[in-house]
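mind reviewing this stuff:

——
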Amino acid sequence: MTARLLLLVRHAQAVPAFDDNDRGRVLTAHGRDQARAAGIAIAASGLVPATLAIWCSPAARTVETADLIAQELGEVTPVRPVERLYDAAPEGIVELLKNEGKDTEAIMIVGHNPTMAEFCHLMSGNSAYDSAHDAILLRGYPPATVTAFRTNTTWADFTPEQVETVFLKVS
């Protein structure tokens, strides 16, 4: 069986919320730099296979983060906004992977806190990155943080307990 790769990314730094339009918040100039740096780091890791699905929340800041990362990866796969990722709980991400991952070798999910931190916390007990990863989670999983997990299961059989942390990049 082919190993699967799951990359979890918190969106990069966004402008503050000034009204009720949370979904419309875009990245700051620093946030755009963070997203590009995350993409460069992911590309340099050598972990990402030729085929990568990129899913993100439909909020402007996550779409922008995903697009900038994809550009740095040279990725031609379109970024796919997924409504359920806007306010998903960790269990919702597991369900999404099980139902929609299919034969995809690697999936990147760009989302929000607290979901990204909570989901990473569920999966952080199986690798050498544990102490560093746990320290990051205690700080709230900063913007543009990337964690990559490898699993030897199909997405349909995916569980957080069956992963190994293989990459960590903190902005």
The two ends are 33 Å apart (CA to CA). The first strand starts at residue 4 and ends at 10. Residues 29-45 form the longest helix (17 residues). Residues 69 and 136 are 21 Å apart (CA to CA).
